[in-house]
Amino acid sequence: MFSKETVPFPQKVALKDGTEVVLRLMVPDDEEKLLRFFRSIPDEDRLYLAEDVTNRAVIRRWVQELDYDRVFPLLTEKDGEIIADTILRTDRSGWMRHVGDLRGVVALEYRRRGVATLAFSRLVEHAVVMGLDKIVFRAMSTQFGAINCMVALGFVKEAVLKDHVTDLRGRPHDLVIMTNYVTELWRKMEDAILDVEFKVHP
């Protein structure tokens, strides 16, 4: 059983450019911060999310139904404001209990600065602790940046499901399912961390 008291967060980390950020778990008091964050995301990016994250009711449900054993939600903050929302979702009792589902959104001005790599590395580390074997990443086929990022980390396309999902405007898209094994992904993440030169502060 995990709780915010039993994991090594919050963590203060400096990116290569000197920007200091904090990684921490989502808590019930994050409703307003999450709304501000998601409402700052460009409309074209929010189209690809599974839910309308500008809807207060959606965010309220998230923060009121926190279950760190099922969904491990890791937030990245700069100066007290959320700049990334990343999660590791698992089914700890079903036939896919060895598999984790990785997702994430980063604020526009912090993309390509190592924020996603940093947050995903912590989630993969948590996957190791949980004893997971495999990580799945799902994206619409038009999310080229996300797909290319995962390919660089060693993910491979397992399947493409035709017109399997719709964006928030109701338009159909192919769903790309990508996978990687935790041990291989952890090795890739370690290499990426060394390249980006994150510095953890006490």
Can you give me a brief rundown of this structure?
The protein is 31% helix and 33% strand. It has helices at residues 31-40, 43-46, 56-64, 115-130, 144-152, 182-196; strands at residues 11-14, 20-25, 71-78, 81-90, 99-106, 134-140, 156-166, 172-181, 199-201.
**Total domains:** 1
Q: Give the overall form.
A: globular
Measured distance between first and last alpha carbons:
26 Å
| Poorly predicted tracts of residues | none
Largest sheet: 9 strands, mixed
Specify the CATH architecture.
3-Layer(aba) Sandwich
Q: Which CATH top level class fits? A: Alpha Beta
Gyration radius, in Å: 16 Å
Would you give the CATH topology? Aminopeptidase
Q: Spatial order of the strands in the main sheet?
A: 7-8-6-5-4-3-2-1-9
Q: How much helical structure, as a percent, in the residues?
A: 25-40%
H-E order: EEHHHEEEHEHEEHE
Total beta strand runs: 9
**Residue-averaged pLDDT:** 85
β-strand percent reads 25-35%
The CATH superfamily is known as Gcn5-related N-acetyltransferase (GNAT)
Q: Please give the count of helices.
A: 6
* Structural class by secondary-structure content: alpha+beta
